[in-house]
Write a structure and sequence with these properties.
With 430 residues, the chain is of the alpha/beta class. The chain is built from 13 helices and 9 strands. It has 2 domains: 65 residues; 301 residues, Aminopeptidase (3-Layer(aba) Sandwich), CATH 3.40.630. Helix 6 packs across helix 13. The radius of gyration is 25 Å and the shape is globular.
């Protein structure tokens, strides 16, 4: 849809093999130029060998310089061209359980047997935003919108959530298009709800049983325009410069927009934009920071409408970053909601630790303040529209200069979070 050529992709999942490839190429080139022979002790032969070794050394140094220059050119001064970014995409075919793009998503959802699929929005780029639901919806009387109900000191006037038998849990996939770790996680969760197995074919009966005890609302891709622009389809094994290029994009002169500077122009549109980062839909809207009282794009309002109409008990906005997995402190929500999410974080981190997966430390509950307080973002808005416990989860991309995890570990981190979330809400009903 954006006229960019898709990368040719050749399979080789492992991070280590990607990292060792340039060195192996170098060895191969040096060997072909200097075939091995039997040793010869004559002075002429020694001079010849010496000259060859000098030449070999010079070639090696030259090769090293070329490799370093290629690398430093690509990132010098914090800038990168589209051609350089494309050239840095590893030659690999991603494994079948990994879902790093939007191609084939509609067909995947059309084939579902248990889940109910609806299109909740169409993006500026003409792409559908899907909602996949599992479990029957339990209707409750609604007399007021959420903030009026709270004003009336009766949350049940909005929705009597305690009368529902099953918890309602809303999963929001990447609103930052390149953060496809969650798209993979949610595509696997859907597969588990359909078949009891994940896309690796592993038995996930326990997670499916938890899912069956809830109503699940899954928005697998929160910003399909951004995801369609994400040509690497995974940042695992790449580095933070690749993240900057594909994530926040570049200005016209090729300089990285960077984080958080990329938020100082919104929409990200106009003549000063180079590569539009995957944070944004095709109109330059970052759904995490839409204008919630006067919407700029279609994605965030559609997600908020699902929350308003369904009244979930728990909502997660799934993101990715460089360090270890983290449940972030939700901003501008009551202390009790923060405390509830903190207790979920403690349970989730314990599960991750038990599975030898990395994790952050739980956040501290506190109020907003300071010169630059936290923003009121989509996660905050989600709480205020339906009263849900609402939080942002950050998964590692698996960058080689960040929290190093494999694609398989990323999937396990996602599924572990979902398990902790479902159990957390089921425990409240028991
Ligand atoms: Zn994000």
């Amino acid at each position: 849809m954006n006229g960019m050529e898709r990368p040719s992709v050749i399979l080789n999942g492992a991070q280590r093999s990607e990292r060792s490839r340039p060195a192996m190429r170098g060895c191969f080139r040096l060997r072909t130029g200097f075939p091995l022979r039997e040793p010869d002790a004559s002075p002429a032969a020694q001079d010849d060998r010496s000259a060859r070794w000098t030449s070999l050394l010079a070639s090696a140094v030259l090769l090293g310089m070329v490799l370093m220059t290629t690398r430093s050119l690509a990132v010098s001064g914090g800038r990168m061209t589209y051609a350089q970014a494309k050239a840095r995409i590893p030659e690999r075919q991603l494994p079948g359980f990994w879902v790093g793009g939007v191609n084939g998503l509609a067909a995947r959802f059309d084939a579902l047997r248990r889940g109910t699929v609806t299109v909740i929005a169409v993006t500026p780029g003409g792409r559908p935003v899907h909602l996949v639901a599992y479990g029957r919806r339990e209707e409750t009387t609604r007399l007021a919108n959420y903030n009026s109900a709270i004003g009336g000191r009766e949350p049940a006037a909005y929705m009597n959530k305690t009368a529902r038998k099953k918890p309602v849990v809303l999963f929001i996939g990447p609103v930052h298009g390149h953060e496809v770790e969650a798209l993979t996680g949610l595509a696997n969760l859907i597969q588990i709800m359909e078949t009891g197995k994940d896309l690796q074919g592993r038995d996930q009966t326990a997670l499916r049983q938890l899912g069956d005890r809830c109503r699940l609302l899954i928005v697998p891709a929160g910003n399909p325009d951004g995801t369609a622009r994400f040509e690497p389809e995974a940042l695992q094994g790449m580095d933070s410069n690749d993240l900057r290029f594909w994530g926040q994009g570049t200005w016209k002169d090729g300089a990285f927009c960077g984080w958080p500077d990329c938020k100082r122009q919104h929409p990200m549109a106009g003549g000063n934009i180079g590569f539009l980062g995957c944070y944004f839909d095709d109109a330059g809207i970052n759904p995490m920071h839409d204008e919630f009282f006067a919407p700029m794009g279609p994605e965030a309002p559609a997600i908020l409408k699902v929350a308003r109409e369904e009244g979930p008990d728990l909502v997660v906005s799934l993101h990715s970053h460089e360090p270890a997995p983290a449940l972030l402190r939700p901003a501008y929500v009551p202390a009790e909601v923060q405390q509830d999410i903190r207790s979920l974080a403690e349970k989730c981190y314990a599960l991750l630790a038990h599975r030898n997966l990395p994790h952050a430390d739980p956040f501290e509950v506190r109020s907003e303040g300071g010169r630059t307080p936290d923003s009121f973002n989509l996660t905050s808005a989600l709480h205020h529209i339906c009263g849900a416990g609402s939080f942002t989860f950050e998964c590692p991309h698996g960058l080689r200069d960040g929290c190093q995890v494999t694609l398989e570990q990323i999937l396990d981190i996602q599924l572990t979070l979902y398990e902790a979330m479902l159990q957390h809400e089921i425990d409240k009903k028991d």
